[in-house]
Write a structure and sequence with these properties.
This protein is of the alpha+beta class. The chain has 5 helices and 7 strands. It has a single domain, classed as Aminopeptidase (3-Layer(aba) Sandwich), CATH 3.40.630.30.
């Protein structure tokens, strides 16, 4: 396994993998219209370019034999989507292709995140996970994350609840 930090020249590939993995993960639980609108807003080229060039955000592709099996987006400082705690790092996106799940890739991304947090002198990692994504919640719990609060996430007009899960870094 190899992690490759994404750069601006990866924009098209990042857009493609982002849309593919978000769709694969959430298409069965959302209307086609809500999903289409969300993808157009969250993963359009300008939005992703803005995120890629933000000095407080970083994307990584996870590769196995030079094939992208997943990706990760981390935020620090004012790039975080919420102010959860001082000296925190946010996992905004962590996705693995469905045919590659349960093979250790998610664990590799969490380990990379923990190392990145230590390198940045962060004391906590946090993320939001949809309350109906039971397998993801169980995975994060297994990795030492605890449910500490909740927030709303909108897919179109559909208000959904994300659990905020945190992990202290020692």
């Amino acid at each position: 396994m190899e992690l490759k930090k994404c750069a601006l020249e990866d924009l098209e590939l990042l857009q493609k993998i982002s849309i593919e993995l978000f769709t694969d993960t959430f298409k069965d639980q959302n209307t086609e219209e809500d999903l289409k609108n969300y993808l157009e807003n969250a993963y359009n080229r300008e939005q992703l370019k803005k995120e890629l060039t933000n000095k407080n955000s970083v994307f990584f592709f996870l590769l196995d034999n030079k094939v992208i099996v997943g990706y990760l987006k981390l935020n620090i400082g004012n790039a975080q989507t919420e102010d959860i705690a001082e000296n925190a790092l946010e996992i905004e996106r962590i996705y693995i292709r469905s045919n590659r799940k349960r093979k250790g890739y998610g664990t590799s991304l969490i380990e990379k995140t923990e190392q990145f947090a230590r390198d940045e002198n962060k004391e906590m990692i946090w993320l939001g996970v949809w309350e109906k994504n039971l397998s993801a919640m169980a995975f994060y719990k297994n990795k030492g994350f605890v449910h500490t609060s909740s927030h709303s996430f909108f897919m179109g007009d559909d208000e959904q609840t994300d659990w905020i899960m945190t992990k202290k870094i020692y």
